[in-house]
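Usage

Read records sequentially. Each one opens with the input sequence:
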Amino acid sequence: MRRAEMQKLLGEGSAWTNGVGLWLDLVRVPPSGTWERRRADLYAAADDWLGPADVTPQDGLDLLVRRYLGGFGPAPRTAIADWAGLSVADLTPALERLRPRRFRGEDGEELLDLPRAPLPDPDTPAPVRFLPVWDATLLVHARRTGIVPERYRPRVFNPRTPHSVQTFLVDGTVAGTWRYEGGRVRLEPFERLDRATRRELGREAEGLGALHS
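and closes with the structure output:
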């Protein structure tokens, strides 16, 4: 049912604005949010679309923790709680059931990860990478200074440039911006780069330029 149809049934009062989803679990279903129909305003009852839930809140919390660590681990438990909108105390039972691997960060903070999750050798080099505007690597729920150094953050996220910029990574951290102009990828590093890094960026830029052309 379209949102307009539900509003017509409920009336134009506060039923919709207060959240009909508080009383009935809804999901947005296709076709909506497409090029042909931009508005994602087609809804269905979650039980009809997904089927009845046969899991417990405990199962959901366990899955939530595993999914977070699968994407962002190793991570402190405070980061998991912040992302999930829960307290650390709420997460503790799930973490105890998971029995995560424990590490110690450079600042002494405890870091958790999935059991038996693969980890690269500490000396494994991180290849250079070109990221688009608003890449999900940078748009995360917490300030990840390991990816975007604080001294560079104003140059990437600035109120005067709300569209942000296209960035490139060197050794896993933002080191400058790039743009495709005049048939080639042009780099604007934030600081001086050594010759080997410039060569690696040049090779990666050639591939990116070929994709654009």
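Summary fields computed downstream for this record:
- Residues 195-212 form the longest helix (18 residues).
- The radius of gyration is 23 Å.
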